[in-house]
Amino acid sequence: MPEFAALEYENLNSVIYGALCDALMQGRFQPGDRLKIRDLAEQFGTSVTPIRDAILRLANDEAITFRSPRDIRIAGLSESRYREIRAIRVRLEGLAAETAAQVATSADIQAMERILQENEEAIAAGDRLKGTELNQAFHFMLPRIAGLPVLTTILRRLWLQMGPHISDAYIAGGRAMIDHHYPVVEALKRHDPAAASMAIVDDILLGGKPILERIECGTAREARRA
Hints:
Helix content is 72%, strand content 5%. By secondary structure, the chain is mainly alpha-helical. The protein folds into 2 domains: 12-74, Orthogonal Bundle (Arc Repressor Mutant, subunit A), CATH 1.10.10; 79-220, Four Helix Bundle (Hemerythrin (Met), subunit A). The chain has a 3-stranded antiparallel beta sheet. A hairpin with a 2-residue loop joins strand 2 (64-68) and strand 3. Helix 1 packs across helix 3 (48-60), helix 2 packs across helix 3 (48-60) and helix 7 (149-173) packs across helix 10. The longest helix has 25 residues, at 79-103.
C-alpha cells in the first residue's frame, strides 16, 4: 500500500479523498489491491471516520469495490467498461490536445518535454510508480494548457478507474507507454490542432494495447473459473 503523510488540515474528509484520488490516478494502486481503513488512518494520522467517508466516496466513483468493511479493494475493469472509458477518453483528451495546440507557449512545451525526459529515466530504471505518475502528469498537462478546468474534472473521474490499470500494465508495456507522447509534443510545437488530437488518440488506442491485453487475460481467467 502507498505511504501517506499525516495531515493537520481542518477539512480532513476532502483532503484524504483528494490524496486517495491522486494515488489512484497516478497508479500507486493496482487492480485488486486491498485497502485497510485502520492502516490508512494510521498513515494519515486521523481517526477512521474521514477515511471511511473517503472510501465511500470512491465507491460511489466506482473506483473501488466495497464488499464489506473488511474487504475493500481497488476495482477491476471489464473489457466492455474499459472500451467505453477508452472511447470517452479519445473524444475528451483529443479535444484537450486540439485546444492545447492552439495556445501552447514555449514554456508549456518545455514543461511537457521535461515530463517526457523524466519518464524516459523512470522507464530506464524500471520505476513503475514514477513512470505511471509522469504518464498521468503528461496527459493532464493538455487540458491545463488548453485552459479547460471542467474537462479536467471529468477526466479525473475516468482516471480514477484507469490509473490502476495503467500501473498494472506499465512495465510490461515498455516503449508503447511513452513513444506516442513524442508526436503530441511535436504537434504542439507546430501549433497543429489536428495532428495533436490524432497523436493523443494514437497514444490512447495504440499505447493502451498492453492494458487491454491484460484486461482480456483477466476476463478469460474469470470465465474459466466460472
